[in-house]
Amino acid sequence: MRICFLVPDGVGLRNYLYSSLIDRLPKDAELILLTVLPPEVVQEVQQVHQKEIRHVAMTTYREAFWGKLLKESITYARLRYNTRKVDNSTIMINWTRKQYAWLTRLFFALAALVGWWASLRYRRIVRLEKRYRKHLRSTAYFKEQQSVLRQLQPDVLFSTHQRSLDGSVVVEAARSLEIPTLGAVYSWDNLPKARLLVRTDRYVLWSEFMKQEMATYYPEIAETRLFVTGTPQFEFYFNPSLRQERGDFFAEWGLDPNKKVLCFSGNDMTFPCDELYLSDLAEALMQMPEAERPQILLRRCPVDLSGRFKPVVARYPDLIKVSDPLWKKYRGGWDFNVPTLDDIRLLVNVALHADAVINVGSTMAHDFAVYDKPAIYINYDQPAITHWSAVVNNQYQHFRSMPTRDCVVWLNSRAEIADCVRRALYGPLPSAEVRSRWFKVVALHPLEEASERIARIMTAV
């Protein structure tokens, strides 16, 4: 059997190529990695699994005006339609918020006008999408990808990310050649955002909740094409070979083994206040009695290369220790930031040895939940930042998956920081059963069986 992994950026690499998925496939399967990433990345994956993997360089799709207009109009239409369907205005925040030159603003205004018209009838959105896929099939890039796939002749093509523009054309080429395609929805918050660009024959999903979301936002996709498998990204926490002894971990990062550790987990640059929240946290902790004051272990977002935390860390060098992500940057933008096995090991041990995590609505709450560690969600705004709101962020559609607000500790003001930290570290907290309910909604359990489930579907072609 010949299996082709479509990896259009560095993000999908971690979950599907460093996890045990490859090890679950038939031993005689021929594996192909179609990717924009360099050959060194494939060599590292081969070393992890001790398996031969063929590297095929993937070129980049240059989007024409007409195609981009259709794509953005569809996005706007779906966002407006989804907003009405679930009665949540925060969905529209996923429309562009960047400050562009006037000509680009005019383009997005035109896309919004077409999208507004399409959003009034769902069948109009579906028709626009059919026209968009017809456009993709008319491009030179589509014909190029057809030629590549004819040479590779895979039995199945697995796409690791549903938002890739390049990947959408590759999958369209595969479907035109009647090559079975399987796609992953990358993250638990993706479906309301109207970016299901990669249209595969079948999808592997995190949970029954995500399957219900597919029915809500994409009713034209038959239920028989949807498979609830969980996600491999949580499997690493069950691998004993990735764990360090507590003393070794504390020594490596300069932590005091006699003190509690609070992980501050940063977001990407679309969250403009993270350094301000870290400063608030440090200032509040310094007011606590030293005997109960925890240390802060800072883990910035791997694609945040801004250095914005450095002034805060410099002010509190004894309180804040830094465990920078161990990713490699190759070229281009954020999608060429590539995770490594060393970073996976680091993240496992941060969650294992830290006592709690604090951030603005991050998936890290689920990473820590694997080890039954509490999460603090920041839920107050910074007065100096007027174009973004943590309070609004926490009203995003994916947070409606919470069965109870007690799943996390809510930090509603600067004045509450010390009390919230004490509660997370020392209690009282709701029972572990109550706190785990959200995680069981978000990701299918047992967590460690996700790769096995995906492998079974991938090979059943």
Report what the structure shows.
By secondary structure, this protein is of the alpha/beta class. Helices cover 42% and strands 13% of the residues. It has helices at residues 11-17, 21-24, 39-49, 65-86, 102-119, 122-137, 140-152, 165-176, 208-217, 246-252, 274-285, 310-315, 341-353, 364-369, 390-393, 417-426, 432-442, 450-459; strands spanning 2-7, 30-35, 53-57, 156-159, 181-184, 202-205, 226-228, 261-265, 295-299, 320-322, 328-329, 337-338, 356-359, 375-378, 409-411. The protein has a seven-stranded parallel sheet with strand order 3-2-1-4-5-6-7, sandwiched between helices. A six-stranded parallel sheet has the order 10-9-8-13-14-15, sandwiched between helices.
